[in-house]
Amino acid sequence: MLTLRCPACGVMADETELAPGGEAHLTREGPGSTDEAFEAYLFLRKNPRGVHFERWRHAMGCGKWFHAARCTVTLEVFGTYPAQTSGPPEEILAAIEARRPGWQG
Ligand SMILES: [Zn+2]
Which Pfam families does the entry mention (predicted)? Predict the structure, then answer.
């Protein structure tokens, strides 16, 4: 079972307490964007085999959204961090590099 630490309240939450929110760090496109950029925002996702950055919501707890970095193959969790970031923090990238030398996001 997947267990993630909610960075908002600090609770270790089982996946039954969480709601998935898809890929993290998407660039939101609006009325001024091109059709191609808006299509990519709506439909195109990385769906990697390996390290992935995801949005999760602590639905059965504090209700806050957060991001998690984990491996989609092994379910290894590299860390969680607040959703109010435009990219993964340095300590998360360092944790990934330590366990996946040569990884390139
Ligand atoms: Zn929480």
Answer: SoxD (PF04267)
- What protein residues have CB closer than 5 angstroms to ion ligand 1? 6, 8-9, 58, 61-62
Tell me how far the alpha carbon of residue 5 lies from the centroid of ligand 1, in angstroms.
Answer: 8
User: For residue 38, how far is its CA from the centre of ligand 1 (angstroms)?
Assistant: 32
CA distance 3 to 16: 9
CB 88 within 8 A of CB 53: yes
Query: What CA–CA distance (Å, rounded) separates 6 from 20?
Result: 13
Residue 59, both tokens: 């639905």
Q: pLDDT tens-digit profile of 62-82?
A: 999 999 999 999 999 999 999
**Domains of the chain by range and CATH?**
3-99 (3.30.2270.10)
